């Protein structure tokens, strides 16, 4: 049994407020904070190169820890500075010819869609959207009808930024692979809150961030690339870390996913990410997933019982993101009023998931995302505060 009180004491921020924005930027635990600050201090004492050399083993271990978390191997992991960087770096390394097709899902994240559209414009490829089924999950029948050998890549969002939906992955991968298409999974909202095994999911690549459910520092993220696939890919940018300069006109890209890494990075943040992942591994992803789901289910049932509150989560299995609106009150004003009571939620706007929000006629939703460190008392305060808003 894990002691929630101990986990909360490790999380200074959660004692001051009811923190329900782990889908946005979570509260790092004390060991992450100590690592990041400690390393910045050390850089100031001895210089960044010496400080990094002192932590060489720990820096190497970051990829190993991430690999362990998602059932991969260290050579399949590239450390980058955000989920968007990971997604875009992989996407832009796939050669696209005129007429090639790229499929996105209806809950696609804005930054991914923008990169896909941008690249399609340059290459003559076409971007198409696989609709959602009536439950909100990706419509597998529609995907089956749409997919053919001209589809180069299917982009799937595991959990969207604007709701508790969990998309099926394996079924999409099987359909895509039957037609020779790659699957890139945006796991930004699932890594750290759901158990992930890339072997079971079968995806070709996966992008994730550090600051959300992993509770790592900002400016961190990673890209997973399956097996030897990285060898066939041509990153848009490579430097003296991702490749070797052999002669005046020859260079040799790294054989593994590290060809997607650049040499310079925020070493303190990267060490912090490693500690965040190890912290989660020591707690257990299953524990985290259960606690998060329990908190979110409780929010859904308590808010769902309030008059005038509408819940907007789609799907059949739901996870730790709860979205809602209150009739007659702007989502931003709900967020601000809750902030006055030291309750942190955020607003997810139409432009982040344009296709899905437009299809549902939604402009903005309030998003509450409880991590395992949120207590029952916190959830009661939250439900009470929302109830208060509905009565005004
Ligand atoms: C937050 C988010 C991203 C972007 O992550 P960054 O680390 O900010 O680049 C991508 N996809 C989804 C679904 C997200 O919620």
User: Percent range for helical residues?
Assistant: 40-55%
For this structure, what is the CATH class of the largest domain? Alpha Beta
Could you please say which CATH topology of the largest domain applies here? Aspartate Aminotransferase, domain 2
Rg over CA atoms, rounded to whole Å, is 21 Å
Uncertain spans, ≥5 residues at pLDDT below 50?
A: none
Strand content: 15-25%
Distance between the termini: 41 Å
Helix and strand succession?
Answer: HHEHHHEHEHEHEHEHEEEEHHEEHEEHEH
| Biggest sheet overview | 7 strands, mixed
**CATH architecture label of the largest domain:** 3-Layer(aba) Sandwich
Main sheet strand line-up: 2-8-7-6-5-3-4
How many strands appear in the DSSP assignment? 15
Structural class, from helix and strand content? alpha/beta
Number of domains: 2
Ligand types: pyridoxal-5'-phosphate
Q: Please report the number of helical segments.
A: 15
In CATH, the homologous superfamily of the largest domain goes by the name Type I PLP-dependent aspartate aminotransferase-like (Major domain)
Basic shape: globular
Mean pLDDT: 97
Provide a descriptive summary of the structure in words.
It is a single chain. This protein is α/β, with parallel strands linked by helices and 392 residues long. The protein folds into two domains: 4-27 and 284-391, Aspartate Aminotransferase, domain 1, CATH 3.90.1150.10; 31-282, Aspartate Aminotransferase, domain 2 (3-Layer(aba) Sandwich), CATH 3.40.640.10. It contains 15 helices and 15 strands. The protein has a seven-stranded mixed sheet with strand order 2-8-7-6-5-3-4, with helices on both faces. Helix 7 links the parallel strand 3 (101-105) and strand 4 (126-130). Helix 12 runs parallel beside helix 15. The longest helix is centred in the last third of the chain and has 20 residues, at 285-304. The protein is globular, with a radius of gyration of 21 Å. The model has no long low-confidence stretch (mean pLDDT 97). Pyridoxal-5'-phosphate is lined by residues 82-84, 109, 111, 157, 160-161, 186, 188-189, 209, 221. Pyridoxal-5'-phosphate binds at residues 82-84, 109, 111, 157, 160-161, 186, 188-189, 209, 221. Belongs to the class-V pyridoxal-phosphate-dependent aminotransferase family. EgtE subfamily. Probably catalyzes the conversion of hercynylcysteine sulfoxide to ergothioneine. Pfam families: Aminotran_5.
């Amino acid at each position: 049994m894990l002691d929630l009180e101990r986990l909360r004491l490790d999380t200074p921020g959660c004692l001051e407020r009811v923190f329900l924005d782990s889908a946005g930027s979570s509260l790092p635990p004390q060991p992450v904070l100590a690592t990041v600050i400690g390393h910045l201090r050390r850089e100031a004492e001895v210089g960044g190169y010496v400080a990094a050399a002192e932590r060489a083993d720990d820096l190497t271990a970051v990829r190993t820890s991430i690999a362990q978390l998602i059932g991969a191997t260290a050579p399949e992991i590239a450390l980058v500075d955000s989920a968007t960087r990971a997604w875009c770096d992989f996407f832009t390394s796939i050669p696209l010819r005129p007429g090639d097709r790229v499929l996105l899902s209806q809950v696609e994240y804005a930054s991914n869609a923008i990169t896909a559209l941008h690249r399609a414009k340059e290459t003559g490829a076409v971007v198409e959207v696989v609709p959602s089924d009536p439950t909100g999950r990706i419509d597998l029948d529609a995907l089956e009808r749409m997919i053919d050998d001209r589809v180069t890549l299917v982009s799937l969002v595991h959990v969207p930024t604007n709701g508790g939906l969990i998309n099926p992955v394996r079924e999409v991968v099987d359909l895509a692979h039957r037609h020779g298409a790659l699957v890139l999974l945006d796991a930004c909202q699932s890594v750290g809150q759901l158990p992930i095994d890339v072997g079971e999911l079968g995806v070709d690549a996966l992008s994730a961030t550090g600051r959300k459910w992993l509770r790592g520092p900002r400016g961190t993220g990673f890209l997973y690339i399956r097996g030897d696939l990285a060898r066939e890919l041509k990153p848009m940018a490579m430097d003296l870390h991702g490749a070797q300069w052999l002669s005046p006109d020859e260079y040799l890209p790294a054989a593994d996913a590290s060809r997607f890494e650049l040499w310079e990075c925020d070493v303190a943040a990267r060490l912090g990410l490693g500690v965040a992942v190890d912290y989660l591994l020591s707690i257990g992803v299953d524990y985290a997933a259960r606690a998060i789901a329990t908190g979110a289910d409780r929010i859904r049932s308590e808010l769902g019982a309030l008059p005038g509150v509408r819940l907007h989560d789609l799907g059949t299995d739901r996870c730790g993101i709860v979205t809602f609106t209150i009739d007659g009150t702007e989502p931003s004003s709900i967020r601000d009023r809750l902030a006055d009571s030291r309750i942190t939620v955020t607003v997810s706007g139409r432009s982040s998931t344009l296709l899905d929000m437009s299809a549902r006629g939604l402009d903005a939703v309030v998003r509450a995302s409880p991590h395992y460190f949120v207590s029952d008392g916190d959830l009661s305060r939250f439900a009470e505060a929302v109830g208060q808003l509905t009565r005004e």
